[in-house]
Design brief:
The chain is an alpha/beta fold. The chain is built from six helices and 13 strands. It is globular.
Length: about 270
């Protein structure tokens, strides 16, 4: 990969409750191979059931999903793509966390970020299952790009997208597991993150029905001006676009990225009228 030329990034909408090596995984790998991508982004915790749908955490369910994701590490080579941007549930000093990582051909793993923000509502009882990890909001240089993670709900906190832009990220990746009902909200969040950071933003999502839940699919790649340049669908579950570092660098010098965002001082209070 040439750091000065285009780097091809692919996103997906992956089947709910996928397991490593099953038919859904094989179909995804075929679609991914066809993109000829340099990097591939998986959705949030792509393997096994969505355990956070339950408001009663079960240790054995957490362990089972962790093991599926451990098995998946041996299958990423099936994609025939040099770099996979993934995330998985793991224990860190006894805490259950969601860890974003970069997998490189040959099996090297680099941790980039741990999820920091969790919902707590029907279908998404993540605060009951997971905790914040200690490693967060770090940029990884890989394959000629500076890559940063915001895992699902993290994208709703735009200050971190702006932080990444200031730190020189070229692309922010957003693995999601989000429902069909709120897709408009997530698309807006992804586009706004691009605008405020001057970065490309790429997002992959879980798709399809699982129990009483319907995941919304739709993966996006958004350029630094906020324009969607690639979008998945049921008929095209994997799409790719070219990322240009020069485009991201230029965007960081443009509005609104150059605007001074030092918090304003509080106005002087006038004395109360007598």
């Amino acid at each position: 990969m040439n750091a000065d030329g285009p780097i091809r990034l692919a996103v997906c909408e992956a089947a709910a409750c996928m397991t490593p090596g099953d038919d859904d995984w094989r179909s995804l790998t075929t679609d991914a191979q066809n993109t000829k991508a340099d990097m591939f982004l998986l959705n949030e915790m792509p393997f096994g059931p969505w355990i956070a749908a339950s408001s009663e955490p079960q240790f054995e369910d957490l362990i089972a999903v962790q093991r599926l994701h451990e098995q998946a590490l041996k299958h990423y080579g099936d994609l025939s793509i040099p770099i996979v941007l993934g995330n998985h549930p793991v224990f860190d000093e006894g805490n259950s966390i969601i860890e974003g990582f970069v997998w490189e051909r040959g099996g090297a793993i680099t941790t980039a970020h741990t999820k920091q923000y969790f919902p707590n509502e029907e279908g998404w009882y993540e605060t009951l299952w997971f905790e914040r990890g200690t490693q967060a909001f770090q940029i990884v240089e890989v394959g000629g790009l500076n890559v940063a993670f915001l895992i699902c709900t993290d994208i709703m906190f735009n200050e971190w997208a702006r932080h990444y832009g200031k730190e020189g990220a070229d692309v922010i990746v957003v693995p999601r597991a989000t429902p069909v009902q709120t897709l408009h909200r997530w698309k807006t969040a992804v586009q706004m993150a691009a605008v405020v950071s001057g970065c490309y933003v790429a997002s992959s999502n879980r798709a399809g029905e699982e129990g009483d839940m319907t995941f919304g699919g739709l993966g996006w790649i958004v350029d630094p001006s906020g324009v969607v340049i690639a979008e998945t669908s049921a008929d095209e579950p994997v799409v790719a676009a070219d990322i240009y570092r020069s485009v991201a660098a230029h965007a960081k010098r443009e509005y609104p990225c150059y605007v001074d965002d030092t918090p304003p001082t509080e106005p002087e209070m006038l004395p109360e009228e007598l």
